[in-house]
Design goal:
40% helix; Dna Ligase, domain 1; 7 helices; three-stranded mixed beta sheet; binds zinc ion; binds manganese (II) ion; 2 domains
Length: 150
């Protein structure tokens, strides 16, 4: 999704995040990609436009944006954190081979709910479903070492 500066300003204001040019650039880059980049990936993307941006700024800004609820962290096993600029309800296909993360938008999954016996009085605010497996290109590589089915 392409965002203009006014959209970014409004979102930052709503989430109580102080706006700086660098923060806006990092946030815009994250919202504009569906690749769920790591902090280092994002650093590489952003420094194409802003070569003066430091790696520390990217890391620190991601933690500010995440704590403010503007971006979401997606963890893939023990791999490094990956970031998602889309905080609306959606789910993920995660490749165990290449680490690729793809969005799944599915009304049916959005409507998942716990049976009353499982909720234990918990006030559930949301849920995220992750499908783990191998993407089409990794299936070629992993054909002979396919994971045990659970
Ligand atoms: Zn893959
Ligand atoms: Mn996503």
């Amino acid at each position: 999704m392409k965002l203009d500066l006014q959209d970014i300003e409004a979102r930052f204001r709503r989430h109580d995040v102080r706006l700086t040019r660098q923060r806006a650039a990092i946030y815009a880059a994250l919202v504009e990609t569906t690749s769920h980049p790591s902090a280092d990936d994002l650093y590489r993307i952003v420094t194409r436009q802003q070569p003066m941006m430091s790696r520390n700024t990217v890391y620190y800004t991601l933690s500010v944006l995440r704590n403010a609820g503007l971006v979401r962290e997606v963890n893939v096993g023990h791999d490094m954190a990956r970031y998602d600029g889309n905080v609306s309800m959606h789910h993920h296909l995660i490749c165990l081979g290449c680490g690729q993360i793809m969005d799944v938008m599915d009304e049916e999954l959005n409507r998942l709910h716990l049976s009353s016996g499982q909720a234990r009085g918990f006030d559930v605010l949301g849920h995220r479903v992750e499908f783990h497996g191998y993407c089409v290109s990794c299936q070629q590589v992993h054909r002979n070492v396919s994971p045990r089915r659970r």
